[in-house]
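Morning, I've got a small favour to ask if you have a moment. I've dropped the whole record in just underneath, so have a look.
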Amino acid sequence: MVVRPLDLLDLDDLLSDDERAARALGRQVAADHVRPDVAGWYETSDPPIRDLALELGKAGLFGMHLTGYGCAGVSMVAYGLACMELEAADSGIRSLVSVQGSLVMYAIWRYGSDEQKDHWLPALATGRVIGCFGLAEPDHGSDPTGMSTRARRDGDDWVLDGVKTWILNAPIADVAVIWARAEKGVAGFVVSTDTPGFATREFRHNMSLRASRVGELVLDGVRLPESARLPGARSLMAPLSCLTEARLSIIFGVLGAARDCLDATLDYASAREQFGRPISGFQLTQAKLADMALELQKGFLLALHLGRLRDATGKPLRPEQVSIGKLNNVRESIKIARQCRTILGGNGIRGELPVMRHASNLESVLTYEGTSEIHQLSIGQKLTGLNAFSP
């Protein structure tokens, strides 16, 4: 009897009915609204993000792990499983859900005023409004402590100046959560993108995440009232906690891309014949398939454990915990994609098969929201008690 990779250990038995339902929802939305056209979007780098956002919002996938304001309030494991199915279709679509729900909505949900929550969260949950999260800067990516964007007081208002870069949804966002250095630490602001002095620049000709819209935010004397500031955010720990929240969706999500590569490769290897037999019958091919299935299952168990920890405590995971998850699962997923490419041979680069697209996308996921090196140092600091981030 032939089984699929994640069925080898009967891992479905570890999931609740609600978690399976969330997974099925993500899979159905991907099948209906992403898979039929994603290869074309990747080729043209012109995905219909606004239309997709409405469909994702209608399905309740934006901020689905949050409570109130039209959000479903599901467990983090259920949210992660939905993200895994979305990323099995394309990393860019899962990234859209992660940024909207785990960065923009979570920042407002956790640190915003009642007025900010009432105004923005329901619209973001439905996808009628698209958000972006402005933390990374041209000269301060891995080191946000060097942030150069400034927020200064001018009477009762705030004035923001600075540049944020590699921001998903930047070219099309209606609202941005912007982090800036103020006199008393790092402050967060909810900024409508039609505010005078706010401009965007789209990055074109990217070779990865081409089913996304990515760009730069430029703030030139952006004047905001006090009501735009996130009152609960008082230090750099606020945006970092948002990243911790979002990384769990990555830890689950990348497994979807790896699984999709492995599923496509298994189907191909069973049908492709060389030397008078399917290539899946050769020992070297089976060794590759076995090793990839092993790493996929280990990654799933790691993601499930971290999700269960988050659900049991109701508190964000510790930095080293999310670092272990992101470092391992992204690193192993990209290895799986590359190994699948070797089995597919020349056909592996064709757009009809998803493997090269997933491999290319995972190159971006490998470095966003913390490079592998940064996560290694996070783990190393916890093991040794010594901070190796700076000389």
